Structure formats: C-alpha cells, structure tokens
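Hi everyone,

Forwarding the result from last night's run.
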Amino acid sequence: METVIGRPRPRSQSRLGSALTGTFWSAVATLRLGLRTVPAAPALMAIAILPEFAQHAAEVHLGMYDSRAAFRAAGDDPLRWAFAYPKIAGFVLAILLVARFQALGSVREALLIGGGNLLRLGFAIGLTLVAELPFDRLKSMIEPPEIDIALALVSGLIQAGLLVYIVGALLDDRTNSLRGAFTVRWPTALLMTFLAALVFVPAQALHTGNHVAAFGQPAPIVWGLMLFDSLWVGIMAACLGTALAVGYAAGPRWRGWTERPGRAFTAGRPRPAASSAPATFP
C-alpha cells in the first residue's frame, strides 16, 4: 500500500483517482489550517484587516453606502484611492506572511525574512510583473475576443509557474528554480492555483455581497457590516496564504505526490520538495 495525501491507496488506483484524492485532501488541509490561523496568528491577519477597515471608514465618510448610485459616483474619489493602495499592499503582504507562518510554524520566524531571501523574493515578484507586460500590451492592440482569450490563457499558465517560483523564494526553499517551476513542479503550480481559486471565488462573492447589503442601510448596520467585512478580508488572506503553503508543500509532480498536506508544517520547518522521494503513481 502506498500513501497519497495521508490516505492509503492500493497500487491499482488510477492516476486520475490518485490526483483527485490528493487534491481533495489538499483542499481540506487548506480550509482546516487556514481557519486555524485566526486564533494562531491574528497579528498577521491584522495587516489585511486594519487597512481594509480604514478604507471602509473613508467610504462611509464619502456617503458611498447611501445607495448603489452613490457608490459608483464616488468610486474614483481620491480619498478612497488614498486608502486603496495601502489596503491592497496589506492584503498581499498578509497572504505572503501567512504562507511563511504555515511553513515555519511561528509568527516571529514568518516576520524575520533574511536579506538574501528578500532579494530572491523581490526578483521573483519583479519577474512576474515584467512577464505580464507583453500580454497587457498585446491585449490593448488586438481586438478579436478569441485572441484575447488565448493570450489570457497563456499568460495565466506562465503566471502559475512563476507563482511556484515566488512561493519557493518566500519559503526559503533553496531547491527552488525557474526551470523546476516550469518542468517537474508544473503540477504544483496547477494545484496551488486551484486551491487559491477555491478559496478566493466564494470568499470574494461574500465580500462583494456584503457591500451590496450595506446600500441604503442605517449607519449602525453599515458600520457593523463594514467591521464584519474587514474581518472577513483577514480570513480571506489567511486562507489564501495557507493555500499557497499547502499546495507548495504537497508538491505534486508528474510522478506523484511529494508530501502530505499539513505534515511539513508540524515539524516547524518546510521540507524542500526535492528532499523526499515522490510516491509514484501506478
């Protein structure tokens, strides 16, 4: 019997069955560990929560929740955007730090990023931004929607591979490389993208619905909804960061799974994917 994502399976299990089973348990680990972050690392979540609430305070001051029309009219107000940039930065930073927290097992270690690692991480993020520029340029020049969809697909695949490279740099994995991200770790890129989407799509729907529910409501209800929404954004960041860490730790490759989700986090240090032999598919 071999083990895939912590569950025994007979050698007769198909590749598809193994992939589906592993993906399912990766999703379970993402939600379980992500929600566990709420009591375990509230300081990291606060990095996303506080800027979000500050922007909501500005939006209430502008009267944006008086009606849907008022929200649209003030959408580009300079005051709102003055809070929007810190909010976005805080959200992304919280995601990255939660991923480190899940891998390293300590808020303190998650915050202590070495200079060399910062350089590698900055290079990885910069490379991701540069790689997107040609596609943005082409999309602005080409009108047929079919070409636009094809460009978006190619861009998405490239960004998925670069995501593995970014997270590898973030988690101090010295086996991380661009070549590996687009070859042996390509299935890892797909799993990480899937887990992130699994978290983001429903969470963003509730985030948007919460704004809509506030339109035209009395001030106490609006403030209550905005407080809840800010906390919800913190939970989103926690679960998204966990999705990246779980997907990277599971490390599916073409031959099988590298690690059981959650197992790499219990030892306090992530085990590089290359250091353990993957369980081969039958």
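Residues 2-109+188-280 form one domain.

Cheers,
N.
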